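Q: Hi! New to this. If I give you a protein sequence and the SMILES for zinc ion, can you show me the bound structure?
A: Yes, paste them in.
Q: Okay, here:
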Amino acid sequence: MYKLWRTVIAGMALMVATMGATMGASSTISHAGSVSLQEKLAILKDHYPKLIKQVRGNHLVLSNDAKLVIDDGKKKNHQAKLKNPDIEDTLSQVYPMGRCQVGTPAVNFDPGRIRSDALMRHIFGATKNAARGQMRAVNWFGSKVLATKRHGTDKALEKVRDALGKLPKKFSKFYRKTAGTFNWRVIAGTTRLSVHSFGAAIDINIKYTDYWRWAKGKPGNVPRYKNKIPKEIVDIFERYGFVWGGRWYHFDTMHFEYRPELIAIGRLAEKRGCAT
Ligand SMILES: [Zn+2]
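A: Thanks. Here is the predicted structure of the protein with zinc ion bound:
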């Protein structure tokens, strides 16, 4: 009996050891194109060093000691992730950069569109007044647009403007007129705040845009992808940390928002050969 128990216990110990090794391996070995959750969290934290204190266990600890759950362990479909994401969900889709930018977005591929409302409010301002108080007017080809000063968003937008101004004149019709930046509002058809609420997004000329809702799309069921915005313009926004709504299945091609951490994760994935 004693011998049998010893064998059982030894077997169990081996199993636990194997499981441990496998779990450890999954967080340290990077497959081609993949960036581990720990790496994504480190990049996120590095971009907001004053606002994110640390990654501790299953929590992102913010500067005010509030804790956001990294992985709530719930299985969610895409719509549920959009509605009630944990931090892992917000980083689950890697924004494609450089040579990873091939083809049109796959069904429900919306990198950057899954956002943590709590984190966004912590970064940019929890209320309309708090967010508005962080903004200043930026000159946009003769008109004024409001941009948040948080994390250099306003300065990044000025760099985009200066680079756009150096493109050949034929491109100017796409961006000189804008449909605006700051607008404290929820995303159409949802109760979630748009990034425009924080003065960290800009819509360029509405005349040349394609938007899944206007194309009579339904969430999760969008008509054929369309875009008229030239790559030269998109490249400039991305170079300075803005993600583009034209890379989303739920496409919104006039929309750019400042998410430099997602661009950084995308660049790392590109170096590794692109996520599949
Ligand atoms: Zn927009």
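A: The domain at 37-271 is CATH 3.30.1380 (Muramoyl-pentapeptide Carboxypeptidase; domain 2). Let me know if you'd like me to explain how to read the tokens.
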